[in-house]
Amino acid sequence: MIADDPYAILGVAKGASDDDIRRAYRRLAKELHPDLNPTNQTGAEERFKKISAAYEILGDPKKRRAFDRGEIDARGEPRHDPFRQYSQRAHAGAGAGAAFDNFSDIFSDLFGSERGGPRGPRGGFAVKGQDVRYTLQVDFLEAATGAKRRVTLPGGGALDLNVPAGVDDGQVLRLKGKGAGGFGGAEPGDALVEIRVRPHPQFKRLGSDILLDLPITIDEAVLGAKVEVITISGRVQLTIPKGTSSGRVFRMKGKGINPAGKSTAGDQLVTVRIVLPETIDDSLAYFFSEWRQKNRYDPGRR
Q1: Which of 99, 126, 180, 226 would bridge with 186, disulfide CB 3.0–4.6 Å?
Q2: What is the pLDDT of residue 39?
Q3: What is the pTM of this model?
């Protein structure tokens, strides 16, 4: 493989699947993103540019097929040579008049016909700028409630990004016109930002609902209590009724995720777990030994 071969840059075989290519890019992007390499900014930025350019080709099925056929190079530029193609067509058996028509067709193919072809402001060749791809890691709560983040670009610039509430792991945000500049006066491409959500130590997400395990004491389970529960929007009180068993689930309406554009929020599902004290003292052991003699019951094991 040549040095700028996108397959070599991403470290995948030519016959790799789209998923293999996507995984390779994600792995390298995480390793090389400038935000994650503060001690080696220059080297990381240069390699990050290369893998982004390689994925721009191989991550797009049409561009990948065009590259494999030799129609575009590793930068996505056409490999067409109109003069060579003219020579080949002219010597393929057609007459001089037909060859001249073919020569005109070549320029029409490359630069667009007068009707509907890609033209610049002065009638020249124009191509929309390439889309660029980035990966942004956000915390669980930032993804759940929304946030404003700044994305550092490989070239040293930055993009201010509004992370919408409820964005999910793997979701791609499109920033119109924030990609590479166009050629010949054409509009720039877009910036595609893939969101990666860091896990939370207590919350888990299920659609628009939030799942939480809540430890409670044995006396709270037996006697009932009001306990403080964390939610993505702050702390609230939850009433634990008398005789609550471990594993019981309480639904807190509207305390889940409210994705941008949705009228209602999800719920928070709280599963209680009875946690015994680290040390069982004599008084507690004596109480339950006496209680067990008079109040044996079947917990459902039989």
Answers
A1: 126
A2: 56
A3: 0.56
